[in-house]
Design goal:
795 residues; alpha/beta; 20 helices
Length: 795
């Protein structure tokens, strides 16, 4: 016997491949098994039993033209028996061998090839059918993609996240109509709050109801390990999709093998119908063996002809059914667009409107999956949805960032508010909104933030910072923040990315924006209207604006501090500054200014002016500052100023003057007439001496002249008895006057980096000076008398 198991290797496939077998491939597989059994059965009979049995013909030689078996066909057995006569011929003892010889000779010469090889042909054709059916499962170019797809599909189908995502959607779809209408209203409001979000983003919001409602308590159903596995699946699906959608080798290979099977079916059907009649029970055989056997004509019986004819009929029937499946497969392949697959029904059923349609081999495999069970593609689609992925990321975030862990990150910021700072997270954990004590929230490099309704739990929130963290704010949350939020900081690549809801926060007191205008829009420097910001007092803008944004005048009546940081871009039109009548502090940093803008002199309420990091060379306009009668702080540091004009004496109310990081070599003697001056910073210049008139500054408390070229200090300097900080480091001083002991209020003295050989013991008279406040080389400090050092080291 030939066991059928020997042919198993031709059709052996992984059990998981069954999901890619539609019903016609399954039917064809059973048909090939049946045809293979027919062939194997016929081959077995052919090997184990006599193939043909021959008897000599009794007709004389003159009738030899007639078929030797012709008289046996119509006559009865009794007539044949009556007509028997004794045969004469050569007699020997080899009768059995003679007949075996004749049987073999007639089998080879007289029997038609179709009747002779019928079972072998069935086996060969069936094996070809089997190879054609499973070839794409074995071919290296296709089998790798199929195995990868089946592996991912099984994991997606069994993933707990798939069940969770679909169950959540199912629960949402069963909500009442009223809840649905309320949800639609909130989503519509959220869409209105997006501002510059495009239509696709609005559609995305419409299919993300779970981002508007509070997260159900089922979060605990998925543990951290399962969440990480689902996250890895999302990445695998993304990479697999990109790889498979590039070509259509699977689709092409399936068409080719189907076409080959159809052609094979037609060829087999035609020649079988033509030759099946060649299988006959009686076969006439004429061989020249009379010298051996005494006869030349024989009548042979094909012992398996009757059975083979029945098997041939069954085989042809199976082939016809197999051919019909091939033709139906071709119709299915060419009648439908199998290189495109739409998830529209899945989107409508699950509510995940962002599930993308796929193409090429990816689409073809999904079509085959639908023929097996459409539930597979439905569950697989969960891992194509960005909405689903964002939910999973949110869930993983909630697992990772527990409320206890977040509370450990709370700390006081510079304003004394309790701040929570989060940086470079894939999303915003929902657990953040459980910390009701948070007063300031700082989010940096966090992508696609959508604040949930849980934001209303942060009842103490007053400050919000969004640094490279685009955020959507539903309408309900806008209402909550509109009158509560006092400070907001937005940092983005372009200012047009600033969300519109920011300009609707009526209670906002400070607005800090950082971003660039597009090159073609920088000159216009258009900013959204600030009319709604009735309480705005501080506006900070860091960009590349060509002029002061016109919308700044919307808050001219109550704006108290304006900061423009232009990153070196030249700021030209400044006339609109005249309208800021309530302005107290003005910063024009890195604005490319070469002279002090005249518009500044119209600001009667101005108290502080900062012109840091510009290109100022001359400050002759300083005389006009006498119109700014409230000006107390003037910062002209980090410029290229070469001298200070004598008009500086007019600034009698000036209390702080910053001239560091310039190119000053001398100071005017009239500087001593600024009697209100409490702070003078001229460090990082090229000063060789200080004017003696500096001693007239009786209110001076802070003097910084470090990083200059001073070789000596005027004794008049030590008349400034209120000095608390004296920075003399990194000059060319060779000695320190003993008069330093007159500075009883001195608490910080910097002397390092000079050419001092010793310190005066009069330093001990500076009651407020301690070791920590004395910055000098250790050798000089050790040279002080012991009692002076002990006094400085006292607590």
């Amino acid at each position: 016997m030939i066991p059928v198991a020997e042919f198993k290797q031709f059709t052996e496939q992984q059990p998981a491949f069954k999901v890619l077998k539609p019903w016609w491939d399954v039917l064809a597989e059973y048909l090939t098994v049946a045809m293979l059994m027919i062939g194997v059965f016929g081959c077995t009979l052919q090997v184990t039993q006599d193939k043909i049995i021959c008897l000599p013909s009794h007709e004389p030689q003159e009738n030899s033209s007639e078929a030797p078996c012709q008289q046996l066909l119509p006559q009865g057995v009794s007539e044949q028996m009556g007509g028997l006569r004794e045969v004469s011929g050569l007699k020997n003892n080899l009768d059995l061998q003679q007949y075996n010889f004749i049987n073999q000779l007639c089998y080879e010469t007289a029997l038609h090839w179709y009747a002779k090889y019928f079972p072998y042909l069935v086996v060969i054709h069936t094996l070809i059918f089997m190879v054609c059916t499973s070839f794409w499962f074995k071919f290296p170019g296709t089998s790798s993609k199929i195995e990868h797809f089946i592996s991912i599909l099984g994991k997606c189908f069994d993933s707990p996240w798939t069940t969770r995502a679909l169950s959540e959607v199912s629960g949402e779809n069963h909500k009442g109509p009223a809840a649905g209408r309320a949800m639609a209203t909130m989503v519509a409001s959220a869409g209105a709050g997006l501002g510059k979000a495009d239509e696709e983003e609005k559609e995305k919001v419409l299919v993300e109801p779970e981002k508007v409602v509070t997260e159900p308590p089922a979060v605990t159903l998925l543990d951290k390990k399962e969440g990480e596995q689902a996250k890895a699946l999302f990445e695998k699906v993304k990479k697999f999709r990109v790889h498979v959608e590039e070509g259509d080798i699977l689709y092409t290979m399936y068409i080719r093998q189907t076409v080959l099977k159809a052609c094979k079916f037609l060829a087999i059907l035609v020649y079988n119908l033509v030759y099946v009649e060649k299988i006959s029970f009686l076969v006439a055989c004429r061989v020249e063996t009379s010298e051996v056997t005494g006869y030349a004509s024989f009548c042979c019986n094909h012992t398996k002809a009757h059975l083979f004819s029945k098997l041939a009929f069954c085989y042809i029937s199976f082939v016809c059914v197999y051919g019909i499946t091939c033709l139906y497969t071709l119709y299915w392949l060419f009648h439908r667009p199998l290189k495109e697959y739409s998830f529209r029904s899945v989107r409508e059923e699950t509510g995940m409107g962002d599930i993308p349609d796929v193409k090429n081999d990816f689409a073809f495999m999904l079509h085959l999956i639908d023929q097996y069970d459409s539930l597979y593609s439905k569950r697989f689609a969960v891992f194509l949805s960005e909405v689903s992925e964002s939910r999973l990321k949110q869930l993983n975030l909630n697992h990772e960032w527990t409320p206890e862990k977040l509370r450990q990150k709370l700390q006081r910021n510079a304003r004394g508010r309790l701040e929570l700072a989060l940086c470079m997270l894939p999303g915003l954990p929902d657990t953040v909104f459980e910390l009701s004590e948070v007063e300031a929230l700082r989010l940096e490099a966090i992508g696609d933030i959508t604040f949930p309704p849980g934001l209303s739990q942060l009842v103490h929130l007053q400050e919000l910072s969004l640094l490279h963290s685009p955020a959507r704010l539903p309408f309900s949350s806008q209402i909550f923040l509109r009158d509560r939020l006092k400070v907001i900081r937005i940092k983005c690549e372009e200012l047009r990315e600033v969300p519109l809801w920011v300009f609707g926060l009526r209670g906002l007191e400070e607005l800090h924006l950082e971003g660039l205008f597009l090159p073609e829009l920088a000159r216009a420097a258009t900013l959204e209207s600030l009319r709604e910001l009735k309480q705005l007092k501080v506006l900070s803008l860091r960009s590349n604006a060509g002029k002061v944004p016109a919308s700044v005048t919307d808050v001219a009546g109550h704006l108290q501090r304006l900061s423009l940081h232009n990153d070196g871009a030249r700021l030209l039109a400044l006339n609109s500054l005249k309208k800021l009548v309530a302005l107290r502090e003005l910063e024009l940093v890195a604005c490319g200014l070469e002279r002090i803008p005249h518009a500044i002199f119209s600001l009667g309420a101005l108290q502080e002016l900062d012109l840091k990091d510009n290109h100022l060379r001359s400050i002759e306009e300083i005389l006009s500052f006498q119109h700014c009668r409230k000006l107390v702080t003037l910062r002209l540091w980090h410029n290229q100023i070469a001298y200070v004009p004598e008009h500086v004496r007019k600034l009698r109310s000036l209390e702080q003057l910053y001239l560091s990081h310039n190119k000053l070599e001398t100071l005017p003697t009239q500087l001593g007439l600024c009697s209100s001056l409490r702070l003078l910073d001229v460090s990082h210049n090229g000063l060789h001496s200080l004017p003696p008139e500096v001693g007239l500054l009786q209110n001076l408390q802070h003097l910084a002249v470090s990083y200059n070229a001073l070789e000596a200090l005027p004794d008049e300097l030590f008349f400034c008895r209120k000095l608390r900080t004296l920075l003399l480091g990194f000059n060319h001083l060779s000695q320190l006057s003993p008069h330093v002991g007159a500075l009883r209020a001195l608490s910080r003295l910097e002397l390092s980096g000079n050419r001092l050989e010793a310190l005066p013991e009069e330093l001990g008279h500076c009651a407020g000076l301690k070791k920590a406040g004395l910055l000098v080389e250790d050798t000089l400090y050790e040279g002080l008398p012991a009692e002076v050092r002990e006094k400085m080291e006292e607590e």
